[in-house]
Write a structure and sequence with these properties.
The complex is a heterodimer. Chain A is mainly beta. Helix content of chain A is 9%, strand content 33%. In chain B, the strands form two sheets. In chain B, strands 1, 2, 8, 9, 10, 11, 12 and 13 form an eight-stranded mixed sheet that branches. A five-stranded antiparallel sheet of chain B has the order 4-5-6-3-7, covered by helices on one side. Chain B has two domains: 107 residues, Gyrase A, domain 2; 77 residues, Heterotetrameric sarcosine oxidase (Alpha-Beta Plaits). The chains are: A mainly beta, B alpha+beta. At the A-B interface, strand 2 of A face strand 9 of B. The structure holds zinc ion (ZN).
Chain lengths: 99, 205
């Protein structure tokens, strides 16, 4: 059971939530003035990091609010949760122990 | 002539009162019932707007429950938290439109008031094994010290969104979208089977 901390409802099971992709992607202010390539970048291209990712989630079977989370894409561990519009928390990459 | 304004339960053709499931010697583990003729009105407003807070207090007779997952009660009316800016007013008032009209009169046009009485089917689950039945379906912490009387949570049972209200330690109301009512009813009957269960008469209010 993977728990997600909804900033409104508290800790709930993953199955109540839907994932909304990478967070903090700003829609270009003047879509008519930018190139097709720049528009394509905005629509389709994502960072897809191996490690820490800032991403959007919605508590779809709960309060139905969007919020943001920080997740390590390698371990699936959640490192922080914050409301939309709030500054993302600074997360230090933890040292990986090697044998 | 058929009165088309008469409210019909989504479970009308599936509902049979009686005792079912495992042999329970007159002590069913679970009691199931449908609550009918409720007025259910959804309210959305700004939580920091004092005019809104006062308006709801005057219309409902209780304070807005701001704490996530909490319920305020005034007589037969409950004000149920749904989200940071959304609540559900439920009353046993059977006359359609009265609760909505009262809320609309009290609130200005920055508040959304929507009568959703026909959108949900409300099921009441009670008895010593009621909590156990819910535990089988919803991924929620149902510990008796966590999900206590006066708490509400919207979650999922068998792929359906349900709003669960804890009435007392052994009694729960389930709000489910009308079109999912039959599915939820069948799931509840199936989950209650092992304890022996009683389907009570339809509750009016
Ligand atoms: Zn939530």
């Amino acid at each position: 059971m993977l728990l997600i901390q909804c900033p409104f409802c508290g800790e709930r099971d993953l199955t109540e939530f839907s994932h909304g992709g990478e967070a903090h992607i700003t829609r270009p202010a003047n879509p008519d003035k930018i190139s097709d390539e720049e528009w394509g970048d905005y629509i389709f291209f994502r960072t897809n990091p191996k490690g820490i990712q800032y991403e959007r989630w919605i508590h779809s079977h709960g309060c139905r609010r969007w919020f943001n989370a920080v997740r390590d894409t390698v371990s699936d561990e959640f490192l922080g949760f914050y409301k939309s519009g709030e500054q993302p928390p600074k997360i230090k990459r933890r040292k990986v122990l090697r044998k | 002539m058929v009165d088309i304004t008469e409210r019909r339960s989504a479970l009308e053709s599936h509902y049979t009162a009686g005792t079912f499931g495992a042999e329970c010697n007159g002590h069913p583990g679970v009691m199931l019932a449908v609550r009918r003729n409720l007025s259910i009105v959804h309210v959305a407003g700004k939580p920091d707007d004092q005019t809104f807070i006062n308006a709801i207090k005057s219309a409902c007779g209780c304070d807005i429950p701001f704490e996530p997952g909490s319920v305020s009660v005034a007589g037969s009316l409950s004000l149920i938290w749904l989200a940071a800016d959304r609540w559900m007013a439920v009353s046993a008032e059977p006359d359609p439109g009265i609760l909505e009209a009262t809320l609309r009169r009290a609130c200005d046009d920055t508040v959304a008031v929507i009568d959703a009485s026909h959108a949900s089917t409300v099921l009441r689950l009670s008895g010593p094994q009621a909590r156990t039945v819910l535990m089988k379906g919803a991924p929620l912490d149902f510990h008796a010290r966590t999900f206590t009387p006066g708490r509400v949570a919207t979650t999922m049972i068998s792929q359906c969104t349900v709003t669960l209200v804890c009435i007392d330690q052994d009694t729960f109301d389930l709000y489910v979208f009308r079109s999912f009512a039959q599915h939820m009813w069948e799931w509840l009957r199936d989950a209650s089977e092992e304890f022996g269960y009683e389907v009570s008469d339809i509750l009016s209010g």
